[in-house]
Amino acid sequence: MDNRRNDFVKDLDKCREELDATVTELSNKYEELVLLYDISESLGSLQNVSQLTDLILKKAVEHTNADNGILFLLDKGKGVLNIKGMYGIDWLDPEKYVVRIGHWTVGKVAAIGNPIIQNDIQFAGIENGKPITALLCVPLKAKDEVIGVISVAHGEKGKIFTSVEQKLLSTLASQAAVALENARLYEETKKMFLSIIDALAATIDAKDPYTHGHSKRVTYYGMVIAEAIGATPEFVETVKLAGLLHDVGKIGIPESVLSKAGSLTDEEYKTMMDHPVIGVRILGHINALKHVIPAMKHHHERYGGGGYPDGLKGEDIPLAARILSIADTFDAMTTDRPYRKALSNEEALRELGKNQGSQFDPELVRVFTANWKRKVMGKKDLGIGI
Ligand SMILES: [Fe+2]
Questions:
Q1: How far is CA 138 from CA 177, 250, 345, 368, in A?
Q2: Which end of the chain is more exposed for a tag (fewer CB within 10 A), N or C?
Q3: Which domains does the chain have, with CATH numbers?
Q4: 299 CA to centre of ligand 1 in angstroms
């Protein structure tokens, strides 16, 4: 009887152990799922590498109960890992701290492509920094290639990392790597796009030697107005692109008309008036520039009516076009032309004032004039860094 009882107790203990193990495994799985849900919810909405890095590190430190974390991105060409973000660390200069592939734990993880846990580290940390007692590093892999490393650390004796945290951090890293790679590609494409726009603006300006740098100055003045009226960053960006591209249609205007030293004949003036519509023809089919087209098309409309190409009036003229009209005319007045000398800034502002209501949106003239001294003065001579 006693033997049977003992067997029964043993079985019961075994069952309890198995149940404990299953509960632990389930709770780990649950935590992994929560983490997955948590990050896939938030990662998808971010497109900026630095925002993404901050979020990834925050989640990495939170879910592993670590004291701090660092995200490194690999510079393949140089064979080094650079710090892209830190969490819970304020003693490290990210510019100065570069890790070679294969060196230190972080570099080793990048080299082998697998996680490493180091508990019980006898390391005082970096100069002026806090000590590190345990370290967990996992690779960031996109399409099977290492693109960086996430490292989290404990700074307190006795705290360690286990395979549970390693698994959690690896789950996070696999999601993070895809999001980071997408954001990097997006930023690269955007940079390329902007440099093409820049080159296009320079081409337009080069066609008319008297207006060197015109597009950049118009862009700057336009952005000053847009920011001063409290426009959204997206709208300021629209004004920026429209400023750079507003005269792109001049590419289709004959050189003889564009560079004519004297005043234009009626016929030549009519030809010149085609440039906003030619601009639409050149760029209108580019999806990424759809929001820029109305400003480009209507930058020669007049607030009181009678402008071109459509003779729009007042607020029927798109806001970005009303802004550019002021920026464009102001720059034209304050630069030398073959047939007249440049007006002084103050004279040009007076001219804008005289023509508000008929040619320009009065409220925007007021904003430009009010912000002139604070934002615009001086910048013009500095080459305007756009
Ligand atoms: Fe124009």
A1: 11, 54, 59, 53
A2: N
A3: 2-183 (3.30.450.40), 208-382 (1.10.3210.10)
A4: 7
